[in-house]
Amino acid sequence: MTRPRTERAAPRPSRPSQGSRASGRRRYGCERNTVIVKVYAIDGVVPVVDPEAFVHPAAVLIGDVIVGPGSYIGPCASLRGDIGRIVVGAGANVQDHCLLHCFPEATCTVEDWGHIGHGAILHGATVRAHALVGMNAVLMDGCDIGEAAFVAALSFVPAGFEVPARTLVAGTPASVRRPLTEAEIAWKRRGTEEYQRIAQRSLATMIETEALTAIDPDRPRLPVTPHHPLHMMRGR
Q1: Residue 70 falls inside a structural domain
Q2: CA angle (24 as vertex; 34, 28 as ends), nearest 5
Q3: Longest dimension (CA), the chain
Q4: Which tens digit of pLDDT belongs to each residue from 198-234?
């Protein structure tokens, strides 16, 4: 009695390389320390990341997202261009755990040298050039943060609210508190420059690794430019 013939299983399709669009990731950076970023197309619209920008591998970019040169996107930031457009300008930074989103056909914009602190939420907001948004602030649809203005940490900026240039807003809901000083604006500029350097250093030297199990007695400190919190600058 002969055994029935069985057909050989079709070969499994090869997995796409990590650098391909199908993998949902994109490679960029220097050849030795290539960074793999979570990038997702939707309806054929693919995020655009300038080669001189740094996007942390734990960040997520979806759809209609444009990230400009020299900018920094931190770990666990979510830029969701799945129904509207997200634009991050040149030299700007969007730090850890920030969320950028908007309503259909709208645009959420951080202009050149914009500075978005840890955990902030921007929903259909516009942050003008050189403006700063403090940690865990919430900016609602259609609000406009003027050039070189500051939004204090934990503030809630309601929909449609317009913040004058070079002023401080704070509170829930936010209100204009006072004009900014030249020293405060210069302090913010130095902080943004530091994030631009972080982007450059990350592109050049950041690699995934394993933690050490003991402290090296000759452990170096990181080569950074001195920059201190605003309250220290004021001499408090």
Answers
A1: yes
A2: 20
A3: 96
A4: 999 999 999 999 999 999 999 999 988 878 788 777 6
User: Considering the domain boundaries, does residue 71 fall inside one?
Assistant: yes
Residue whose token pair is 């943060």: 145
Look up residue 70 and give its amino acid.
Answer: G
Q: Which tens digit of pLDDT belongs to each residue from 80-129?
A: 999 999 999 999 999 999 999 999 999 999 999 999 999 999 999 999 99
Q: Classify strands 121-123 and 25-28 as parallel, antiparallel or unpaired.
A: unpaired
Number of domains in the chain: 1
Measuring CA to CA, which residue among 178, 174, 131, 180 is closest to residue 155? 174
* Domain contains 204: no
- Domain range for 33: 21-179
Of 127, 123, 119, 121, the closest CA to residue 150 belongs to 127
CATH number assigned to the domain comprising residue 113: 2.160.10.10
Is the confidence at residue 16, as pLDDT, over 50? Answer: no
Please, which residues bridge with residue 26 across strands?
37
Strand, helix or coil for residue 45: strand
Bond preceding residue 158 cis, omega within 30 of 0? no
Q: Is there a domain that residue 206 lies in? A: no
Tell me the β-bridge partners of 93: 72, 115
Write out pLDDT tens, residues 157-183.
999 999 999 999 999 999 999 999 999
